[in-house]
Amino acid sequence: MKLFPTFSNFIKKVSFIHVILVTILLLSCSAFAQKTISLVPLFNQKALKLDLYYLMDNKIDSIQFRTIKFYMSNITLLQDSAEVHTLEKQHVLVDLANNKSQIIDIDIENEISYNKIQFDLGIDPITSESGVFGGDLDPTNGMYWTWQSGYINFKIEGNSTTCPTQNHEFQFHIGGYQEPYNTSRIITLPLQQKENIVIQLELSTLFSQINFSETSSIMSPNQKAMKMADKLTTIFRTTL
Amino acid sequence: MKTKLIVIGILSLCSVGFYTIKSDFFKYPKYFPVPEYDFTKNPISKNKIILGNALFYDPILSKDNTISCASCHSPYNAFAHTDHKVSHGIQDQIGTRNAPALFNLAWQKSFMWDGAIKHLDMQALAPISDATEMGENIQHVVHKLKQSNIYPKLFQAAYGDRNITGERILKALSQFQLSLISANSKYDKVIQGKEKFTNQENTGYSIFKNKCNSCHAEPMFTNYGFANNGIAVDTIFNDYGRWMVTKQSKDSLAFKIPTLRNLRFSPPYMHDGRFKKLNQVLNHYTSEKNQSKTLAAELKKPLQLTANEKVDLIAFLRTLNDEDFIFDPKNKFPRNILLTTKTKN
Fold first, then answer.
1. Do B148 and B80 share a structural domain?
2. Which residues form the Copper-binding protein MbnP-like domain (chain A) (predicted)?
3. Which of A188, B205, B244, B252 is the most buried (most CB within 10 A)?
4. Distance from CA of A221 to the nearest CA of B (A)
């Protein structure tokens, strides 16, 4: 007799917890949709992979990429100019050597509408000066300068037969957060509110603007880095 | 919010007598300013300091496991180095700048002679990566530490698990360096009313306040600024100081204004270690400077100091030496950790 009421209490408790859990699940299912932002690197509309050779615009010379890494910060969905959703994770390191990093999970409330995506290409001054962080910002990612403060916002390394340097190598470490050489750039792209978000990086757009005999190496914040940062904004696109 | 209030309450209870006490390992005199370092992101703990102490003295941070931080920052030199004018690194390479003394770093706003690094946590990356210093990279340091017999345990004690990351290494190094507080010189004892200056020291103190205090401001004995003090550029190093970071002409030949604490232990002086003796430094300030547009306004004309005044000034500067700090056993090479257990490689 003693056991019975306890047992029924237990059953009651279990079912109560169940009801709550199921409600939460249902609510969450109805309120959020799990979507992804995919970053798709291209060279002349072909899928770009590290260490493969791609023909350049003149159809004679070739280019090969060893490293492509960059930071996207404050990823935000906009409806016209109103911010409707901001990704919780403030800084995302995209590394072409790591497939996982090219797909960013984003939970979007179902009822919101959006028609643009905006992000900072790079790291802001406050984060740059606030000491060491882990995860995507950990200095072991090779994206923090060692000789002065500041993250490398965008790193591209590789070689090209048009590059008049030893081993035909080029390296662009675009960073710097202090005026007048703040190399972070805001990028805004139009979106259609579909299942998932796809952002293409058309690298040929960048390299058609670069003359390797003038510029094959940028390793510090300066005027050249500022110009390169402007050019980098032109590689991002969405298809509508 | 509640915990915050409790923490603040405990902190204010701890602030008794002459010292502000953040933990057993971080207390400083009340007349020191509020530290620049944000401890909320890296709260001081004994085990993190122990880990940082081991890393600081371990040559595993260098490419060929020969050079540690302490190679150029020796405790007996107030964590500077007296044998070399400029730093020396792996394979007997010579750097370009004098290794600075390390203490009271929680108050420092920027690091390196040119202020290139804005946060203590990130400073260690510079010597670790510099080809003429440790020639290593932080990724490989993580790899080596993971292979070692001692570090996973030290990381476990410090961070609660054995995971070793760049962030954790750098935060631990910061913790050890933050714990290096020099605040027990005769000057400090005089300020606290525990001792008295001699007449000569008092005269020197007056001269100091008249002629030196604008840049080497009490009680830290630096205003944490940068200045061109009129030493001619070394034609081998061609070091233009802060200009190399900011690329602004006003910063040409400007270098960090160093603290004057513990000068007895930390010669040579200046960014390239060109002066061995304090006399030479004072003689520099009382002579004609290398004239340039960026020469500090205070130094356009030679400082007027008689030979006697120089002696008195040096007597005062000697009161800034802190032997308790130099010989503090807690800052020393951690024999019990680094000598008793050998690493695998």
1. yes
2. 36-220
3. B205
4. 9
pLDDT of B57 strictly over 80: yes
Kindly list the residues of chain B whose beta carbon comes within 8 Å of any beta carbon in chain A. 38, 41-42, 112, 116-122, 125-126, 128-130, 137-139, 142, 165-168, 170-171, 174, 245-247
Residue of A159, A206, A151 lying closest to A64 (CA atoms): A159
> Using CB atoms, which residue from B42, B129, B165 is nearest to A146?
B129
Question: Could you list the residue range(s) of the whole structural domain that residue B110 is in?
Answer: 38-182+327-338
Report the predicted TM-score, pTM, of the whole model to 2 decimal places: 0.86
Q: Number of structural domains, chain B?
A: 2
- Work out the mean pLDDT of chain B and round it to a whole number: 91
> Looking at the structure, do residues B153 and B55 belong to the same domain, yes or no?
yes
Whether B9 maps to a domain, the answer reads: no
Report the pLDDT averaged over residues B278-293.
Answer: 92
A to B CB pairs, distance under 8 Å: 68
Residue A230's alpha-carbon distances to A34, A94, A177, in angstroms, are 32, 19, 14
- CA distance between the termini of chain A: 70
**Sorting pLDDT into bands at 50, 70 and 90, what band is A100?**
very high
| Mean pLDDT to the nearest integer, A142-161 | 94
From chain B, pick out residues whose CB is under 8 angstroms from the CB of A123: none
Digit-coded pLDDT (tens) for B111-134: 999 999 999 999 999 999 998 899
Q: What is the pLDDT of residue A30?
A: 54
Beta bridge partners of B241: B254
Q: What is the dihedral of CA B40, B42, B43, B49, to 10 degrees?
A: -160
Amino acid at position A144, single letter: Y
Average the pLDDT over each of A25-29, A77-81, A226-230 and give the range with the smallest value.
Answer: A25-29
- Judge if B204 and B171 occupy the same domain: no
Distance CA A104, CA B193 (A): 61
Q: Determine the average pLDDT of the residues in B18-30.
A: 82
Phi, psi at B322, each rounded to 5°? -120, 90
Within a 13 Å sphere around the CA of B192, how many CA atoms are in the beta-carbon half?
Answer: 15
Q: Residue range B14-26: average pLDDT?
A: 69
Residue B155: inside a domain, yes or no?
yes
Q: Are B122 and A144 contacting, i.e. CB atoms less than 8 angstroms apart? A: yes
Contacts of residue B300, Cβ cutoff 8 Å, sequence gap at least 6: B289
Q: Which residues of A touch B (CB under 8 A)?
A: 128-134, 137-142, 144, 146-149, 178, 222
Question: Residue A101: phi, psi to the nearest 5?
Answer: -70, -10
User: Rounded to whole angstroms, how far apart are CA atoms A148 and A177?
Assistant: 11
pLDDT recorded at residue B11: 47
Question: Are B54 and B135 contained in the same domain?
Answer: yes
Confidence band, pLDDT 50/70/90 cuts, at residue B95:
confident
Q: Is residue B32, in this structure, part of any structural domain at all?
A: no
Looking at residue B155, which CATH number applies to its domain?
Answer: 1.10.760.10
- Does the pLDDT of residue A67 top 90, yes or no? yes
How many C-beta neighbours within 10 Å does residue A16 have? 10
Of A128, A137, A146, the CB nearest to B125: A146
